[in-house]
Amino acid sequence: MSDNSNFDAIIIGGGHNGLVCANILARKNKRVLICEARKECGGMVNNEITNYVPPVTTAVSSSLGGMQVNYLPKTTIALSETGQHIRLVGNQHIDHKSISTFSSQDADRFNDFHEKMSKFSKTLGSFMMASPPRIMNNSFSDYFKLFKLGLNVRLLGKKNFNEFARMIGLNIADELEDNFENTLLQGLIAHDSVIGSNLGPRSPGSLINLLYRMAIHNNSLFGGIFQIEGGNDQFTKHLIEKCKSNNVEIKTSASVKNCIVEDDCAVGVELINGEKVYAKKIISNVDPRSTYFSLLGSQNLDTDVKRKIKHHRSKGRVAKLILDLNKLPSFNNCDDIDLDSRMVVAPSIDYIEETFNPSKFDKLSLEPTLEICVKKDSDQNPKLDIQVQYAPYKTDQGWENVKENYIESIIKIISKYAPNINECIEHKKLITPDDIELEYNVSGGHWHHGEIQIDQLFMMRPIPGASQYKTHLDGLFMCGAGTHPGGGLTGISGKNAAKAVLDDF
Amino acid sequence: MTQDLRYSALKKTPFHSRTSMASRTNKYYNWNGYTVPTEYSTTELEYTAARNGTSVMDLTPMGKYEITGDHAHRFVDYLVTRDLSEMKDNTVAYIIWCNEDGKVIDDGTIFKFSSTKFMLCCAVKIYNWLNDSAYGFDVSISDVTDTIAALAIQGPTSCSTLKKFGAEDLEKLKPFEMREYKIDGFDILISRTGFTGDLGYELWTDPKNAEATWDNIEIAGKELKLRPFGMHALEMTRIEAGFIQTNTDFMAAEDSLRPTRMRSPYEIGMGWLVHLNKNSYFVGKKALKKEKEESTTERCLVGLDIDGDKPAHGSVIYNSKKEDIGIVTAALWSPIMKKNIALASLKRPYGIKIKENIFAEIYHPEELEYRKIWARCKVVKRQFFNPERRNKIPADLYE
Questions:
Q1: Contacts of B103 in chain A (CB under 8 A)
Q2: Residue of A nearest to B78 (CA)
Q3: Assuming Cys at both sites, which of A263, A418, A423, B266 could form a disulfide with B271, CB separation 3.0 to 4.6 Å?
Q4: Reported pTM
């Protein structure tokens, strides 16, 4: 077993960002240990939680020495009760044709809309891949980065610049209603703008969410969505294999109790079982709230930092329903190829907004917005993997009392599109945000370890003063989704954090 | 005391019936939402009582917070810059506390009853700060400003006055110690603390006991030159003692709008209260450590001995090349020192390495005309007045 004294770095949490970070450090000849609380690494990138992934960026892939996994594109289908589904693949011509069967006006406008959004997401994207600047520390490179973003935005031209400024705080519903007449198309794009967040389509700021999502997914609305051949967990399996070949040590079932602080500097970690491990750098892949309040400890924090972390918004709003099936249900007007796509139940903006409304009051909507993927379990039996948007973190009646009802209401919605669904179900499992919190050790059970909203982005992610992967404690870094650029399974947080750590050696 | 706020926006202290009876001038001001006298008769007379007899001041408006719970001691030690880990029960400590940038929020005194019960007293309201700081500690914080009546009994005969009032063996109480008494059926806490730089005590009791306490102290001090004194006289004595006043000598970090106006402890002469080698973390430690290591301290707060007899209120301080190097934050002609003294905030190295050839530009008002005086200053110790009787044990007694 490992000798506990001379690690260069300990990474707390073996999610994908932690694995990326570990590999990059190990490739620079650092001796790295990963402490993972669960039985296996991978965090939320697995066949249960993850429906699809963005493409891996060349920056991440090259810093890992290449990624040998196969990305298969995933079509998106907006399901309609009438069977008039919209199928979108992210190709300009195919999508134009697909939409024009409903409205030729919408089809033309879709292309313009897509072009505009794509331009803006590229502008944002150029800013998203690197470590964000810090405004207060007077460093030239930080000012240069800010200048570059300003310049990029300005280079969009006066017209686009004004449009960009207009859109930053806008809600997605207004923008969609201005552009499209088909409510199903409106619903689909609105769904993708709010998925994973605490915003409704009419909440201010829901548009930037979409730009952010596009920046991760090839600057495309529907084109950058992939699944990995052999299952999404191949992504983490591959990263774990790389860890082995790079001599990264991995301890599983090794829950970290707290950081060991000596002389106001993080020097190691203490595990739940009392074991102490020391290293030069400690890197937390855990969400910001747990990193600060559990690992660092509130007795080591300044009051203002506590205030900021307390205000950090990280309550998840997505539940997962997994239906094990004996056979595939027949979805109205869908063929076998369609069943391999991402099927979205969000018939209109108002439908989504009405799903959102009760969640604000910790209540459940019995007509939830859904995203359905067909998968196979290890025995090749089919299963439906359903992402349920706006399932509150806690319900006013307590999850255990309402779970059954909620599951039934979801199945009822699905039966509108797949009438024989009930005959196919063998087993049902609902994973609520507070289940995710417990199972994956993410406070609030939020996918992205914190809301992706303008006040929690860039140099404000996770909180001002901790934005360059450093925490307020010397020697303790963060590499999780709570840091810039945030969740979305890109691994960029892990990559950028590794660079910040290497710069600090 | 419940009050009908329809008639007055400002609260009255439990001593109000007595302080208003003693007031000959009707001069009041608003301290933390309470109305309290600035002057009862003449400030000079009140000052003289404080330096030669006993002076009594209503301290009730001072922010008072009770900190209780299993982590009370740990929390207090975390809150302030001073190392309080060894603090003993029934003692009081002078403290300052900072924000995350290591800038001073306020100064005050902390009273330790036991390791699970403390009381913090300070000039301004800081409930939110305490509450937010306490997150993660097993403590509860309550604002007891309204539920504790407080008096300052200061001056050379103050010990004798309080002994006659019923505080037995009070002369044996050491500076920064406190003792609980039972007088006329009421609990009274007396601490040997104060803001005048002289022998003096502070007295803490139930508001119901306030009026009787005031009356009995007045009777006890009758032959001992007792006089109520107001804020103006206190201001004179505290400058002589070299004590600093928040938002007068420095801007409280939470109140200043301009970040450059915030001051670190090192910039207001409070470096001695910062214990960077404290075992545990405290709020602002990281920033203060950095300031100390990188020697980035920009200013200092010093005492000035100024030529002439015209007080240098608000004067700008210059070097010999007439360059602006600082400002006077508080000034007076000290009757007891017979000196023209001031506290001044100077840009380093002035005040630290350069102590000579410093000048104050004084504008002295003379019946609607200003006389401009260019006065030479000398940097001196901020504690201008520090009589032996202040810390003497046992304290001086008079008949």
A1: none
A2: A299
A3: B266
A4: 0.88
